[in-house]
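writing this on my phone so excuse typos. first protein, seq and then structure
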Amino acid sequence: MTPASELRTGMCLRLGPDIYKILAAEFKVGTAKLPSSMHVRLRNLRTGTQTEQRFHPEARVENISVETVNMEYSYSDGDSLYFMHPETFDTISIPQRLVGPFERFLESGNHLRIEFVGEEPIDALVPPTVEAVIAATGAPLHGNTDSAPKSATLANGLEVQVPQFIKTGDHVKIDTATGKYLERIK
């Protein structure tokens, strides 16, 4: 059991039958009329819903130890994604909702960090950016339109808007949350 005043972003805890991950934690100093409290924004790891909770600083909550494993992506069957454990070579199924829109960047052989409570996968740690290769794009426009973006197709089939100087074969950095171009790498 952990005092609520020690809760930090990224920790997992059990409230009732459910397991939650702390998305944000903030200590609020009390005033003459209101006592001090710990405000936390939580995500239910089974349903994906978010909620906010307020705890008295001395209240005790059940902190859960989480194991993080770097697993290799194998394939998807629509609702589930299958990853191979690097040491035991067991194939583990995780729900697609844990990965969310990042699934479009997964290719066989890619690695992703998966968090487990015991044997149950509870979360996927999606990187904020990925490196991708431009599979096809048009020729650049010249003149006063150099700042206008053009359409490009990545190797995974995703279409993005890129600057005029990007050409086929370039490596670019893409924001995984929005799918937008960030910068050219090579």
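second protein below, same order as before
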Amino acid sequence: MKKQNCVKITFTGDIMCTRQEIPAHKTKTGDYDFSEIFYDCKNYFADSDYVVGNLETPIANADYCSRLINYNSPIAFAQAVKKSGISMVTTANNHCLDRGVRGLEDTIKNLDAAGLKQTGLNSQNKLPTGLIEDIGNIKTGFLSYTYGTNAGFNKNYLEENEKWKVNLFQEQEHHKLKKKPFYSFDKMYKDIKALKNKGAEYLIMCLHAGGQYNPFPSKDTKKITELIANMGVDAVITNHEHVIHNVEFLSDKIIAYSLGNFTSLFCIYSMPFLRLSDYSVILNIYLSKENQAVKPADFTFSIAKSIAAGKNRVKTVLLYDLIKSCTNKRNQIKLLQDNLKIYNRLLNHRKAEIELKLEYSLKP
């Protein structure tokens, strides 16, 4: 629920569109309609001043998903994301080059045509690559960076004179490399400094890092996020793992290690099952401003769940609403157990019981 005299900025986990989903959302006229996926979250997003999602697919003028982890989605998918109330998507992730550099360029143009702002992919070779948005009375900066682009799998490598097109903090993976690719934070540091010089009062790094389906963030991910937090950003919101990880605080700075899959068929129609990858966290940052000083007033979260909505179709609902409307006692008990499990995982708690709420506080 919106707090008085505060700006509310909301973040979702991975917004997925797999190869099974695209034909399932084709209409009788030959177009596509994905609005059902996001419909149940529209009212929740309407309570926020700004909503950011991690778009885990290109929106390119090319063939749609052809292989299991090689993505591309119709512009109608981006339009549905926009209509749901999401203001901006982060695009620096391991799938951003699934349709090559041309697909990357198409994605920027198609998101712009859909009225959906993005950060992470670049049409110009200049800093800062991120955005400063006037949210309420607070100039809020957003950056998006990724560890890689699945280059070892999709073979879409950036030429030396193209590397500025994707915000990378690690060299592109190569299938012939025997040693781990090296990190480089020089561009990121310059980006952070440039956004602050342009007036960003609160700066958020949307990071794509980590492994996949791990129960906890790796030591490497924790070192990287802490390093970035100490480079001058105020929040690090990480995605990529497809499951929910915990949140930590460095003073008044928040580090979220993984928000899970905001929408996905995984764990419903396809592997991996039993990983809770059909659940995600919707994270909220409340900011206040007093005497020109911006500070976080609260951090909260809600739990969302992807549920079946017909063959190869899913929709994302608030777990609170799902539990409240559930008439099957056994199913309701299971959902309540999952609610507790996710709460404990996110906060590193071991509580045996919690009150059912739409929005929980994370404030330490």
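The chain has one domain: 7-318. thats all i got for now
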